[in-house]
Design brief:
Layout lengths: L1 E5 L3 H14 L4 E4 L9 E6 L15 E4 L5 H4 L10 E2 L4 H19 L2 H9 L15 E5 L3 H13 L2 E6 L9 E4 H9 L4 E4 L13 H6 L4 E5 L8 H10 L2 E6 L19 E3 L9 H18 L13
Parallel strand pairs: 1-2, 1-3, 3-4, 4-5, 6-7, 6-9, 7-8, 9-10, 10-11, 11-12
Helix pairs in contact: 1-9, 3-5
Bound molecules: NADP nicotinamide-adenine-dinucleotide phosphate (NAP) and glyoxylic acid.
NADP nicotinamide-adenine-dinucleotide phosphate binds next to helix 5 and strand 7.
Protein name: Glyoxylate/hydroxypyruvate reductase A
Keywords: NAD, Oxidoreductase, Pyruvate
Pfam families: 2-Hacid_dh_C
Length: 310
Amino acid sequence: MTIAVSLPAADKTEWWCKMLGDLMPDWEITPFDKVTDPAKVTYAVVWRPATGQMAKFPNLKAIVSIGAGIDHVLDDHEVPRHVPIIRTVGTDLTQRMKEYVALHVLRHHRRLPDLQASQAQSKWEAIIVPPATERRVGVMGLGNLGAAAAQLLSTIGFQTVGWSRSPKDVPGVTTYSGSDGFGEFLEGTEILVCLLPLTDSTRGIMDANVFNRLKRGASIINAARGPHLVDGDLLLALESGQISHATLDVFHVEPLPSEHPFWAHSRITVTPHVASMIDAPTGSKIIARNIRIFEETGTVPDLADVERGY
Ligand code: NAP
Ligand code: GLV
């Protein structure tokens, strides 16, 4: 019984192997490139695995994504689609995302980038903003992360609206669903937060069409996946003033290439995919528990729907 582990960096792979090994002494836990008998591998624990690697394990019972998204697993078209994919989620991941969203929504709401620009010129420029109760914030995606973040924003006092595929009830949040509810959700929104999974229906969702439906001068926060955003449309919307600022944690190519215009843009804040990354000490406990439950019952609550893509 082998669990094979793969992350893009070898030291991170070793770290996760060590943490999982301490919790699962009955299992052989090994990096992908050190697997000696591929037929013995029954679980693959992965973050952005190289294409074709998992297809070498003929007896996989499940693939474990080190994180909430499964797009990085489905990017590998050689992975057999019948193999279940287990997401790694929990209070730690949700807490970190709540912190990130609250930090950046408040920063846009209180126009901190403008205050910092004034400070850089030793300029005393009092910018008075309305209270949060007069600011409409929209959260796209009301799953584990989106619902928790939206609820927190509502507790702070924001007029909070949320949008999901199916109807949802989130305390303090006015919710909309499906393509029918999208226009109403966007109308009057001044800060738009993306916490959607990356699927064929959500790719490129943050484009000129959406920007034009937000209130003029709105801000956007993308903490989901880079391909949700049409980069060129954002640059044009910033130039025209339709969008005033963007905080981006995720990008089409990561690490963001050094020549990318986002790096030096005065109205874009770049963070290096740190909104909510699960670490090995916490994540390995969740993964060990999920694998044990999956071994006993053949399922876990955090199973992704591979057909749906999340
Ligand atoms: P989740 O629990 O699966 O929730 C996804 C939400 O998106 C659900 O509310 C779902 O609607 C909605 N949705 C899916 N497709 C939609 C569509 N076509 N139209 C409207 N709504 C749609 O996911 P999660 O755990 O909250 O995570 C969300 C994403 O955040 C992940 O997939 C990942 O890409 C990203 N993430 C980023 C970081 C980071 O550090 N930057 C960290 C963790 C996760 P239903 O409720 O109707 O199904
Ligand atoms: C991080 O991006 C995740 O999907 O958990």
